[in-house]
């Protein structure tokens, strides 16, 4: 019987890294190896299976059609291999070992500082690697195995995932001092001047949550989507350039400190977003994710 030579996990890791980065140097850096080591590993893989997977030129790395399909399959194999280790960890102590969590930018700077010290104290064997990225990229990382779980805001279509709701995060209207009455009463969407509304640029789901909560179609057409972060938006409002909407967690974290901005809750049927933890369905670490979700919910 002829001997069968199988690709190694390391070779598959090199291939998927090259697919992700499109550059040998950056791919090698992400794998913590030299560029020559990564290049040699992919050549060995090509020789092993007898086909060209990557066309190499001085300027461009281009995957062949078969290389594209094999890279997709390689990612699935690597994910399955990782889950072998996950199964072993799940049978041991809760929340131990490595865990990669993607967090959207409108949550990360406000919730993580409150929760990370407790995780370090209560679960010292957990090595939590954090990645901040918008919702679409975070869900893509989850499905492609770059993340084990995602901390995001719902509603958002993240695909075939399991989720655990953590808490509701109410939306507030933030405005320069003197622009609106400073009563504690909620602000009706009809009170918002659409020509003054500043929101995060496309790609941030908070923009969609804010517009949906207002239920005013003309806001989408008139609002200026130009902020790259909530901190940037706050600086614009503080300089009198307009009004915006902020989540309650940002207010609790002190985002308006040292500004002349006032905030009032937004009125409406659903003036909020729901914070949730999501993970791949049937993950062997589901118990860990549910425990992590419980800890995060307490921080809310």
From TrEMBL:
HTH lysR-type domain mapped to chain residues: 7-64
Sorted UniProt keywords: DNA-binding, Transcription, Transcription regulation
GO cellular component: protein-DNA complex
GO molecular function: DNA binding; DNA-binding transcription factor activity
Pfam family, one: LysR_substrate
Family membership: Belongs to the LysR transcriptional regulatory family.
Protein name (Swiss-Prot/TrEMBL): Hydrogen peroxide-inducible genes activator
Lineage of the organism: Bacteria, Pseudomonadati, Pseudomonadota, Alphaproteobacteria, Sphingomonadales
């Amino acid at each position: 019987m002829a001997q069968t030579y199988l690709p190694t996990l390391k070779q598959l890791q090199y291939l998927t890294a090259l697919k992700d980065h499109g550059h040998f140097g950056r791919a090698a850096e992400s794998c913590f190896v030299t560029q020559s080591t990564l290049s040699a590993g992919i050549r060995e893989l090509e020789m092993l299976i007898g086909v060209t997977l990557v066309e190499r030129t001085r300027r461009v790395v281009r995957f062949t059609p078969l290389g594209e399909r094999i890279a997709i399959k390689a990612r699935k194999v690597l994910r399955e291999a990782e889950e072998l280790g996950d199964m072993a960890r799940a049978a041991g102590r809760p929340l131990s070992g490595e865990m990669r969590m993607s967090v959207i930018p409108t949550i990360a700077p406000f919730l993580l500082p409150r929760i990370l010290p407790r995780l370090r104290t209560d679960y010292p064997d957990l090595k939590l690697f954090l990645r901040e990225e918008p919702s679409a990229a975070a869900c893509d990382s989850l499905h492609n195995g770059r993340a084990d779980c995602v901390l995001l805001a719902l509603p958002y279509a993240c695909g075939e995932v399991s989720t655990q709701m953590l808490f509701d995060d109410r939306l507030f209207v933030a405005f320069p001092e003197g622009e609106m009455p400073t009563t504690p009463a909620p602000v009706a969407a009809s009170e918002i001047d659409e020509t003054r509304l500043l929101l995060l640029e496309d790609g941030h789901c908070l923009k969609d949550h804010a517009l949906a909560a207002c239920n005013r179609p003309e806001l989408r057409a008139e609002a200026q989507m130009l902020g790259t972060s909530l901190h940037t938006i706050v600086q614009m409002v503080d300089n009198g350039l307009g009004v915006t909407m902020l989540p309650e967690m940002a207010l609790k974290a002190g985002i308006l400190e040292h500004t002349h901005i006032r905030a009032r809750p937004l009125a409406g049927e659903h003036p909020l977003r729901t914070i949730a933890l999501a993970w791949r369905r049937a993950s062997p670490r589901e118990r860990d994710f549910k425990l992590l979700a419980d800890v995060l919910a307490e921080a809310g």
